[in-house]
Cation diffusion facilitator family transporter (Amycolatopsis jiangsuensis), 335 residues
Amino acid sequence: MSEQEESAGGESTLTVVLAGGVNLAIAVMKLIAGIITGSGAMLSEAAHSVADTITEVLLLTALKRSERPADRVHPFGYGKERYFWSLLAAVSIFASGAVFALYEGFTTVFGQAEEQTNPIVGYVVLGIGFLLEGTSWLQAVRQVRRDSRAEGRSFFGYLRMIDDPAPKTVLFEDSAALVGLLLAFAGIGLHQLTGSSVWDGLASILIGLLLAFVAYLLGRTNRGLLIGRQADPRLVGHIRDHLAAAPEIEALVDLQTMLMGTDHVLVCARVDFDDALGAADVERACLRLADELSGQFGDVREVFIEPVPRTDPKLRATVLARYGDVRQRPIDEVR
């Protein structure tokens, strides 16, 4: 593992540990404040923080288990464990946070009106919680900004293409936490001003919907990674150009890549070699190209190169079925 990868892994761990400690402390404070004030929105926020704490535990599990080396049973390593545990974290946000918040909100709105007590306690806890969550949020933003600059991408462009779900999960949940705190503050404040607990219940419902939305976004991201997403299109382009420029290759027929984990890319290429080459020449070319790709592009860990004739109709049909025929290009130009 390179120093850059170790640094990135350590940064992700720091981000997750900081968020977990913050969420645990806030969960306890919110629960106590919710019991004292009788605020449904505050109890929903306590459930929100509990869900976030469980999420951090799952993310730490993901970071540790995904670092195990490849073995006989898993020859490509355990990188996708990070995506599995991160998907469970998204489920946790929905099950532990969103469902409880929605239940608490609808119970407050349509149930018997409850009297609010000691709202000042709620304000103080929400204020402290906002400062603590803000600290964790700033750490997540700092990591994403640093990583996006390192890859030459915009902040949001990097979030769309990120292959490490940990900082994205922490950033999204901390952002939702800050918004949730503002909603809870508004619910408690409007309840105090109007004397109606409906506002408190509406705040809980909005918190639940917010958590459900964040859980959906994170679940969709990890689902795509678990199914098997291609590598960064820019990396795919560099690999394609490198192979196409090789003197032994007449045409790059097909190129497939897959993210096998964070910073772990599998490359499978079908190429049409110069017919004048002998079997030994093709073997040496395959080994050289694999070494060049792994050396030049740090994320490339496994390379498979298959010699094929570009004129084969079955292969052509397979490639066009995958990428479409919208550009009507020859098979060696299909990307």
In short: Residues 3-227 form a domain with the Alpha-lytic protease prodomain-like fold (CATH 1.20.1510.10). The chain has two domains: 3-227, 233-333.
